[in-house]
Write a structure and sequence with these properties.
mainly alpha, 0% strand, single chain
C-alpha cells in the first residue's frame, strides 16, 4: 500500500498558482500528484483558506460556547 504523502504549504501554493493558467492532468503528472488534489489546493488558495496550513481553521469562541451549552 502506498504511503500517505504530505506536501508543504509552499509546494501547494506553487502548484495552485501554476494551475491558474494550465491543464490539471499535465500539471498533476509533472508534480506526481492527483489532479483532484490540485483542484482542492486551487480552491483553498483562492478562498483564502490556504493561510499557514491546509487544515480546517479552529472553531470560533462563539461555536465553542454553543457546543459547550448543548453538551450540558
Amino acid at each position: 500500500m502506498a504511503k500517505h504523502r504530505s506536501h508543504s504549504v509552499e509546494f501547494k501554493r506553487q502548484v495552485a498558482q501554476e494551475f491558474l493558467g494550465g491543464e490539471t492532468h499535465c500539471l498533476a503528472k509533472r508534480h506526481d500528484v492527483l489532479p483532484n488534489l490540485i483542484r482542492i489546493w486551487r480552491f483553498r488558495s483562492t478562498s483564502k483558506a490556504l493561510l499557514t496550513t491546509m487544515r480546517r481553521p479552529p472553531t470560533s469562541s462563539r461555536s465553542t460556547t454553543r457546543i459547550a451549552a448543548l453538551e450540558q
